[in-house]
Design the sequence.
């Protein structure tokens, strides 16, 4: 039996969130189980069910060149601002 | 403790969460499996005391609500066993260990459901005690478990309302009905006080140390007493503990020491209904075997 991961959307417009998983013998059962486990009380407006094998995880994000120029932490203005203000007021 | 294990411990103690494929110490994995498996067992065994009353429910509305609750709890067991499977123990093996008596389930599911009053008290107070434990798992360091707990807690809150409604209907009925509720409260008080376990300090409880649980046993019991004793008393019900009182200065509830020997005795399979209910599970497993076989054969 394959493992299926379930992502559910609580309200229209919201992001889908991982909710859990189940095992099912085939796609038909997978749909039925998803409806039973995650949708029967109207708690979801949409579900995505994905065979676990179809998910490709990426977990490493190496920043070899330390490219902080494209992030906010690459810009520390406090010291420069202080200097700039001091220059004007003197 | 190996350095890697030490780093892991610090990580979870700082609120870090762990996913299925992440590295984890063997002890952490073993404790997770044992704890989550017992939770799954309890959901599955927990429907049996209520199942006995589906055919005897007083109205169609109550029958439907009780059936829905039973369906919810079995659904919880499915979700929870799935988490255990990802940690390395297959569901079939969990079920084998449950029916052979090797693994445990919660103390409250080893007792009989004598009257409709018990059904109300179980849905109200047993579920209330359970939701306190389960809410403390929303912050579990093992993230897949924490995520399904969100759905489980949401459904449990409907169960508590249903139970409270059953109890209120009876309390507004005849003297005989009020008597049934009082008897049930008296019967269930002991097991309820044992439910959250011995008052081991959180720092000494390995389940807290690994941040599988986010609060200690006594903290959970105090929360239960704080939330529910006033609700019980305001209905004119009495609690069978002469020492039960809240210390107004410290805010701490005092009570007669729960019977820990009874708790151990019951959860090791010696409760009044332990063996009968396990036998029912064995029977159900045998009788549904052909369904599993047929479904798997057809899907293959």
Sequence:
């Amino acid at each position: 039996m394959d493992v299926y991961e379930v992502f559910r959307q609580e309200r229209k417009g919201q992001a889908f969130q991982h909710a859990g998983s189940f095992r099912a013998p085939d796609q038909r059962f997978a749909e039925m189980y998803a409806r039973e486990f995650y949708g029967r009380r109207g708690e979801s407006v949409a579900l995505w069910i994905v065979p676990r094998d179809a998910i490709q995880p990426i977990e490493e994000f190496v920043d070899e060149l330390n490219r902080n120029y494209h992030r906010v932490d690459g810009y520390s203005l406090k010291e420069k601002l202080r200097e700039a203000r001091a220059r004007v007021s003197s | 403790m190996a350095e890697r294990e030490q780093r892991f411990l610090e990580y979870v103690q700082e609120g870090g969460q762990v996913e299925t494929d992440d590295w984890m110490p063997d002890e952490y994995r073993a404790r997770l499996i044992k704890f989550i498996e017992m939770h799954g067992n309890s959901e599955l065994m927990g429907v049996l005391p209520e199942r006995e009353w589906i055919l005897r429910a007083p109205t169609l509305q109550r029958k439907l609500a009780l059936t829905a609750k039973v369906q919810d709890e079995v659904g919880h067991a499915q979700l929870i066993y799935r988490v255990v499977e990802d940690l390395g123990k297959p569901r079939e093996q969990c079920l084998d260990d449950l029916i052979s008596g090797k693994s445990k389930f919660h103390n409250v599911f080893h007792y009989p459901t004598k009257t409709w009053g018990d059904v109300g008290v179980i849905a109200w107070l047993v579920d209330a005690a359970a939701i306190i434990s389960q809410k403390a798992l929303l912050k579990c360091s093992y993230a897949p478990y924490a995520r399904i707990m969100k759905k489980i807690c949401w459904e449990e809150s409907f169960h508590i309302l249903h139970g409270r409604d059953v109890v209120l209907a009876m309390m507004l009925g005849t003297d005989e009905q009020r008597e049934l509720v009082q008897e049930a409260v008296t019967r269930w008080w002991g097991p309820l006080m044992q439910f959250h376990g011995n008052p081991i300090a959180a720092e000494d409880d390995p389940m807290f140390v690994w941040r599988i649980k986010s609060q200690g046993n006594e903290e959970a019991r105090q929360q239960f007493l704080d939330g529910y004793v006033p609700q019980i008393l305001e209905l004119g019900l009495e609690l069978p503990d002469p020492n039960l009182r809240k210390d107004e200065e410290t805010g701490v509830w005092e009570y007669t020491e729960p019977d820990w020997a009874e708790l151990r005795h019951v959860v090791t399979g010696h409760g009044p209904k332990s063996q009968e209910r396990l036998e029912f599970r064995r029977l159900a497993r045998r009788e549904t075997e052909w369904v599993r076989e047929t479904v798997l054969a057809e899907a293959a």
Notes: The interface with chain B takes residues 1, 3, 18-23, 25-26, 29, 36-38, 41, 43, 57 of chain A (CB under 8 Å). Strands of chain A lie at 2-9, 17-24, 46-51. The helical segments of chain A are 27-38, 78-89. Chain A has a mean pLDDT of 91.
